Structures are given as structure tokens and as C-alpha cells.
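Can you please make up a whole protein chain along with its C-alpha cells because I've never seen that pairing?
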Amino acid sequence: MPFKGSGILERLRAIQPPSWEQARQRMELQGRQKRAGNEFVAQLPKEADQRFQNVWRSFAELAATPRSSGKEYLATKYVSDRGTEYLKQKLISNMEVDSAGNVTWDISASSPEYNTIDSSTILQGHLDAVSKSINPDKNPATMGMELEIIEQDGKYIIRSKNQETTAGIDNGLMAMYLLELPKLLQELQIPHGKLKIIFTTSEEKALEGAWAYKGDLSKYANFINIDSEEERYITNGSAAIGFTEIKLDIKRTALPIGDDIVFRTFSVSGLHGGHSGVTIIDTLGENASRQNAIHLAANMIRQFAPSALVATVNADSDLRNAISTEASFTLALSETDAQRLDEEAAKTERLIKQNGEKDTAKITLVEAEKPESVLTLESSNKVLGLLSSLPYGIPSETSNYKPDPNGPVVIQNRMRKTADGKFYEESEIVPIQTATNLARAKLDLNRLTLSIGMMTRSSGQNPEEDLRGMLGEIERVATNFGGNAGHEIGSPAWSAIPNSDLSRITQDVYAALFPNQQPLQEVVTLGGLEIAILLQKFPHLIGHTISIGPDIFGAHSVSEHSPFDSGERSFKHVLGIISALAERGREEQSIIRRLPLY
């Protein structure tokens, strides 16, 4: 006889406690992590150093874990779970997880002879990532990221699968190296002093994890941050950072009446984007790449549809350090202006692709549903005028603000064009000390305000003074259009102290390990680093701090990628530094004795 459902299972599911659902989701995530790790390890090049296989596995597992900045609690759990295992195995001596989700591990010196202040070292990186996608079916904020290894021009490259999302290499790769470090130190018999490993959170959002950190670093002598993105440079200084919020009051009016009035949504999407410090120079660079979607859209509407009435503005983001890649405006405009704007959209799209933007870049004007109301012409002009006039990128020649010509140079990435028309990124040192990023614009029709979020950086000789100068320029422009600008310090500057003892050891170790590579060079970065915040709390570490890391190109964009061999060299470099610090001052330096292991 046919079975008739009693409805019991349905009723059980209906009363299933939330913990059951959480357990199911956790098991699903663990399965995804395991698959991601296995699949990635299977792609490792034959030349890969097998001693670091678990680092790559953990990196792929972390990539599969949703960890958008400010929402990286699953990553915190991933790291704290591993810490619990290490405590049982006595590979670490202590673990702390604070209210911000920062995780700290303590590792005892490898032997009593290395338990000295001079050998003691802090190693720090961040767990969160920028989550962006050009595929609506792949949202890394909820699904994590898929990675792949491809061969390109004779080199192996790590990137997201088909480059549809960000890859989380910044700072996931080196953070997972720290995750595996307790095991590596034991397996490779690396001598080391007392170590403190810190995994911070919400770095990309506003360096929030570092601000919240309350651990005690007073008994450590060396500080190594592993969040740099250029292998051949030692970072020994970073920018002062300021955040700006602009409010512009607006007025609404009824919809315009007329047979020639149409309603359209004007959108810019699929732009290259990227890190607003490391790649910001290309917003005004040689090829006019790194377009800012907000500025581009507002400027085009203002130029080609000057009588358009704005109904909505949507370019919302909670990350002020990523160059805007998407912006849309709903408009009421005449058919004539709509036709002209549509024609210019096609021309501009072709032009920016030729000049370095991705093939995914789109500028479109499509039919929109009729809104309930629009802004007045005066308010529309203020909105478009403000968004297209605010400084972005490096200061222009016409700006009232001029950077310090004698300030330190910084490391930047530029987009370059090959003879066959392909684009690639390369790093160089350029004399840019100040830059600003137009990151967010949102129209709130209920509160009748336009809100704008910006981030400004300065690493000149007087970074705080230069920062105030650039913020003053922003405030001047905002005031001209009736806006009100408020500022706050996101991070102080980390002032460079060149040729420190730690920097010298770092250079010596690199030269001994990799004699065929270019010698390391000290630089300042226009990017912001958590070091600056932690040094404020522990000033005894000033002059004993560096930042290093592998080459990462296209950070904060779907083009994010890293050469595989650069990652391996960075792993070995950190081990060499730890070993050299442990045996510093001894007759038989580990720099000489132990390097053959590598």
C-alpha cells in the first residue's frame, strides 16, 4: 500500500531549534573548506616545496570561508579552533580571543637559551578580506572564494577562479602561514625566541581590530607585520589616514510632466577597482585606468544631461579603502538628453577599456520604473556637481593643496600595456605622498540627505599636516556645493626610521636565502597598516618594526593575484628572520648554519 506522509517530519523541521540549523551550516562550511583545500593542493606545481603544503591547504580553506571585513567571525572561529588543537599538542602556550574577534597565540622559546628579550618577536596579520564579485551567482561575502593556480608567461599565478571574485590573498595567504607556523617551527627544527602571533580583524573596514586590541606587547622587542604587498621591499613607514563623511541636504519635487520626459537608470559597473592606497595613482595615470565609478557616472550625467533630475543614487560600500567599481543613478530626463547620454556611454566604455579598464566594464542607460519623486533641479545639480568635483586619486595641478615635494617616495602599482594590447600591473617607487578615495555615495530620500564617504592618506615628511591640508581641500569643495564635511583620524602615521637593526637582519637573511633575487630596499607605503595603531600603544617598538610580504597585484579587485614562488620565498624569509633573531650575537649565526635547510 502506498505510504501516506503523516507530516511528522515537516512538523519536526518547523520546530527545529536554531542550533540545529547552525550545526548544519557549520558542517556544510567544513565540507566546503575541506574540498577547497584538497582541490587547491592538487593544483600545486611539481616544483612546490612540500613542507609548505599545509599552508596552501589552509589558505584555500580560509578562502572558502566568508570573511568580509567586519563579518569575519567564521575566520576567527577557524583560527581559534586550530589554536585549541595546538594547545592540546603544546605547540602554543596560550590563546586569547577578544571581543573584536582578534586571536592571539603565545609560543614559548624553542629552548631556554633563546628565551631572551632580543629574540622575542611579534608576528601579525589580518583575517578579513575585501569581498567583491562580477558574477551575481558568486557572492564571496556569503559563499567564500574559490581559488585556482594557472600558468602564465612561464610562472604559476594564484588567483580567484576565472577572476570572478576577489581572491583574499590580502592578507589571507600570510595569515594562514602564521596559522601553520607553530607546526613548521617544530617540524623544521627552527630555533626561535618567544613569539606572539596576532590575527586581527576588520583591517579593511577601518583598522577596527587594531584599535580594539588590548593585549600586552610590552615584553617583546621585535615586531614583524606580514601585510606588505611587494616582496622586494621592506616597509618601514606608512601613511596617516583620515576618514571624511559629507552630508548634503537635498529637496524633492513632483515628477516632471511632458511627453518628452523619460526615466532611465545610468550605471557604471565592472571596473577594475583596487586598493585605494597602492593603486590609487592610476586614477590619474598614464592610461587613465583605475576609474572611480562614482566620479565617472556623476561627471558624465552632469556633462551630457545637464537638465537631468536625480531620483536615486546608489554607490554604497562599507569599505573606504577600495576604489569604487559600481555606481547607478536613476534619472528623469528629456529624450534628447537620454539619447546623447546613451551615445556617450558607448563611446566612454570603449575608451576606458582601451585605456586599461577590464573587459567587464560597462556603462549603460536602461529604462527605469517611474519613481515617486525626484530631486529639484537645484538639488540635482548640487549632487552631481559635488560628486564630480570632489578630489580623488592624487591631487591635481589645479588643487589648492600641494604635497610636500621633499617628502618620502612610496611604493605604488601601475597598470601597464604590452605590445599585444594586454594589461598587467607592476610596482615602482613614485613621488606621491597624498591621495584620496571617493568610496561611497548614498541618497536617503526619507532623511533628504546625500551621504558621501571618503578616505585620505598622507605619508609625507609631515604626514599629519599634509593630511589636514588634503582634508581642508575636500571641505572647501563640499562647502562650495552646500555640503557639510566632518573628519576623523583613521590611523596615525607610522614614521619611517631607516636602517634599523631588524631591517638589516631582514635584508641579510633575504640575500643569503635568495642570492639570485634583487636586494631588498626600504620604502614607505601610502597604504595604512595596523602597525601605526599598535605602535601608539607600545612606543618601545618604534624603530624595531617592519612589514614584509609576497607580491600581490590587484588587491581589493577581481584581478587580485600573486606569483606562487613569491609566496614560498616569503614563508622561508620569515623562518630565516626568526632564526637569525634567536641566534643574534652568537658566534655561529643561524643565518649561515641553517640556511641549507631551505
Notes: Residues 1-6, 11-17, 587-592 have pLDDT under 50 and may be disordered. Residues 18-42 form the longest helix (25 residues). Residues 199 and 452 are 31 Å apart (CA to CA). The longest strand covers residues 434-444.
